[in-house]
Amino acid sequence: xxxxxxxxxxxxxxIPNLKSAGYWAAxxxxxxxQVANLVxxxxxxxxxxxxxxxxxRLCRLAKFMLLTTILxxxxxAADRDRLEGTTFIELNFLSSVSLAxxxxxxxxxxxxxxxxxxxLSIFSLFSAFNGVASVMKKKS
Length: 140
Fold this sequence. Notes:
Layout: H1 2-13, H2 18-46, H3 52-79, H4 86-110, H5 115-139
Helix pairs in contact: 2-3, 2-5, 3-4, 4-5
């Protein structure tokens, strides 16, 4: 466990190229929301109110955890210049759709484009662009 944590932290502090920087930013962003959601869930549990909201928070936490893991995996692949692999191409498209859906939800709720929604849109486009570029590079 200790070696795994050290390895992960080492990977997160290493940004060898621009693609890695983009995935790093997206990973840190989703990880931040994961921590905030975990704190909200803990506050609901500590208040003794095991309501429907707790279930929603825990479901959202699971989604954040999955998206953070996907983005970290893509960051690691970008570090090693391995984004042309089929799995990484599919993960790029999956993260792009997930981030675009999240951005659309934020836009709908806010009624306007917010900086947060714009950031999600940029991460979505970044991931989609890398997926398309990897497919094109793989075919040539």
